[in-house]
Amino acid sequence: MKWLWALLLVILAAPLAAQDRSALARIDLAQSSLRAEGKDRGKPRPLELELVLSQPVPYRVYFLDGPPRLVVDFREIDFSGTDPAALPGRGLVPGLRWGKAVPGWSRLVMDLPGPYALRQAVQKPALSGAGGALVSLQLEPVDPEDFLTRGNALSALRDLPQPSLVVDPKAAVRGDRPLRIAIDPGHGGHDPGAQVGAISEAAVLLGFARELTDVLTRQGFEVVPTRTDDSFIPLEGRMTLAREARADLFISLHADALIAGEAAGLSIYVWNPDSDDRATRELAMRHDRADLVSGLDLQGTDDQVARALMDLARMETQPRSEAFAKFLVSELNRSHVAMHRRPVQGAGFSVLKSPDIPSVLIELGFLTDAGDRANLFNPEWRRSTSQAIAGAVAAWAQDDAIRAGLSRK
């Protein structure tokens, strides 16, 4: 009977008078977990969130969009002193945070890699007994049209004000200015990049960069282009432009060529000079050939001391780059943009060498693949992809601002 009442409280989620702090439930992080079903093939997988609590509590579950999020409001849980990053399986989702919402209520917000539905929600006695409880939430991926949310974020949070950790993407700023994004369309000038018939990579990328710039600007971000015409900019010069403009994120765009059938679909690259993938090494040679043509060889230009300092700086920057890549995969999945079977990879592209600016390189597709080539000239595909990239920037900006705030505490 006791558990029946607990379930009724879950459904009704009736407000109760706040209890003493000593009576609040606590979470056992070591026994809790987030798990995914099946193998990671670059697409959203069924998820199961299990939280082991010191006692049963009423809770309510709903979803929000922009980006897709699971929200769980708990009655009388004290999350203080617990770090969501320590939850086993935390890396399966783009973001996870929790804390106090209003007196007597706490909130968990989990960013999702795409639209989901609640398959099952159960609260039952914990295996450890002693009055503990296990809350199990099973989620399954769904098509965007089947993604049921609790209205917009404002209506969903009308009775429970937004916690301070939730940030409006348009309000994402660095200091007193909007977030600044460097957009780098690859190649240009005497280096046209990959060519298939009359199609040149440099021209395709410049057109896409203009459309992406328009989408980002409309969403309140500032854009710093490395080139706005068919001109040649040395690789390190591109990073210098971004650094001088105090860019907060660097996105390099490419649409390369490989042996037919060897690669297709959008790919995202982050800095990894030790990558031993043959196709990636070949792409690195193609990306870096522009400076070699100009007589500038970037190999060996960093002395030992400089390399050590850059490696230290990357200890902070690299995780931020990887975080953006994860948000981008999530948004592209939501937009049904076809990706490579390994959507995020590491590579030693020189344009990703900056130690002080989070950076990614996006291979929009391969001109040598007929399907990718058709996408690059499809206005609807370009629009969807541009909006997905902008959505990822907004979601990453929220997460990055939260992490920066927490690190200063």
Automatic annotation (TrEMBL):
First-tier enzyme category under EC: hydrolase
EC number: 3.5.1.28
GO molecular function: N-acetylmuramoyl-L-alanine amidase activity
Residue span(s) of domain MurNAc-LAA: 239-394
InterPro entries: MurNAc-LAA_cat, N-acetylmuramoyl_amidase_3
Signal sequence segment: 1-18
Keyword Signal listed: yes
Segments crossing the lipid bilayer: none
Keywords assigned by UniProt, alphabetized: Hydrolase, Signal
Catalysed reaction, written as an equation: Hydrolyzes the link between N-acetylmuramoyl residues and L-amino acid residues in certain cell-wall glycopeptides
PANTHER family the record matches: N-ACETYLMURAMOYL-L-ALANINE AMIDASE, N-ACETYLMURAMOYL-L-ALANINE AMIDASE AMIC
Record-given protein name: N-acetylmuramoyl-L-alanine amidase
Organism: Paracoccus broussonetiae
